[in-house]
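Human: I wish I could look at a protein chain and see how it folds. This is the protein in question:
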Amino acid sequence: MKTLLKKTVFALTALVAVSLTVTGCEDEHKIKAEKLPEATRTFISQYFSGLDIVTAYKDRDDGVISYDVRLSDGTEIDFDEAGTWTSVDCNLSPVPDGIVPEPILTHLGTYVEGGTQVFKIERILGGYEVKIADGRELIYGSDGTFVRVDSDR
């Protein structure tokens, strides 16, 4: 009887530990705009003034905190824990001036005849990935130098 009780207690303890581990790895919940980091709110007011924050989520994935924000025009912006943008997706509108580094804009002015607009920019390991008007995704180094056209599309 004691063996059965010990096995049952052990099994329940293991089940609780596993469920806590699984639910502790990923957590996403809606938050109020005022709960976003100050740097996030400043970025939004600087580059997207006049737009409202429709939804804001705080994510925790494997202990890493990030924020996902959707604005009233459909723009989606991701931020890291400090409030620095990691991705700006304006969908059908160009990314506002001042977000895309100048060397990237300079390259685009010569790379695409007549220049082009950036609709999405994302910080990636070692640089940036930008999506331009014709749908191509271009990879740039952290200093804004052109690397290649993304062939994963």
